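Give me structure tokens for this 94-residue protein.
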Amino acid sequence: MTLVFAVIGAKALYLTFAWLGSAIVASWLSDRKGYGERPGLAAGLLLSVVGVVIWLVWPARAQSRWKIQGPLGRGKKTVAEVRAEHHTGDAESS
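Here you go.
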């Protein structure tokens, strides 16, 4: 009797990588859009690639990195700088 360790095959390995990759991307997207990492991680793990698509179309919060710096974070200002400007603007108008 011989023991076979490589029963699942390469296709299952690639599908596992795609599943974990979609969980990572969905987690990053939800954090970037201002909802934290956990909702995106849950969507990515439970829905796989569909979870990434959901987070791509989900609207971002007003003070999120997605709105301030753009989708990939190439904005000139940091989130803290924009929030400080917004906070000083509120204090001046009061």
